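Budget justification aside, the reviewers requested a transparent look at the raw inputs and outputs of the sequence design task funded under Objective 1. We therefore reproduce one unedited record. The lines immediately below are the structure tokens for a 143-residue chain.
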């Protein structure tokens, strides 16, 4: 089974003075502004790294829900934040790291079973597999 999803981008102008817009097949993003200032400064709009961070947080959290289910646990709440690091390296820029921060409320879960499920989700999530970067995880189980 193959699932295909589509996004698109339009760009006009040079790198620093140009403007772009991104859209998604679902319409959640529709002509959403992006540009040099949204990527390297604090301008209004989005940027590729922010979108990748949101995608990774969402993918990991869903994968964790599946891992928890396989281990007989159900989360009351999973809250994940992903931080994507874009660094200047030899030859340009690269995404060098992603740090996932998770706070989970899972009634009756043991710390050991929770950490194992989180590790498996981090390694098995399709977006994690996409990155050629160090992926770290700080997973906290709260009562």
């Amino acid at each position: 089974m193959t699932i295909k999803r589509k996004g698109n981008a339009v760009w006009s102008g040079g790198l620093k003075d140009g403007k772009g817009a991104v859209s998604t097949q679902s319409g959640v993003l529709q002509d959403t502004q992006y540009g040099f200032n949204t990527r390297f400064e604090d301008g209004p709009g989005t940027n590729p790294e922010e979108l990748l961070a949101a995608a990774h947080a969402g993918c990991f959290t869903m994968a964790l829900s599946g891992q928890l289910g396989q281990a007989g646990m159900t989360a009351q709440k999973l809250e994940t934040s992903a931080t994507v690091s874009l660094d200047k390296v030899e030859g340009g820029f690269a995404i060098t790291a992603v740090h996932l921060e998770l706070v989970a409320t899972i009634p009756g879960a043991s710390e050991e079973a929770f950490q194992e499920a989180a590790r498996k989700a981090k390694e098995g999530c399709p977006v994690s597999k996409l990155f050629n970067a160090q992926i770290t995880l700080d997973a906290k189980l709260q009562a």
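The longest strand covers residues 92-105. Residues 7-40 form one domain. Computational costs for records of this kind are itemized in the attached budget.
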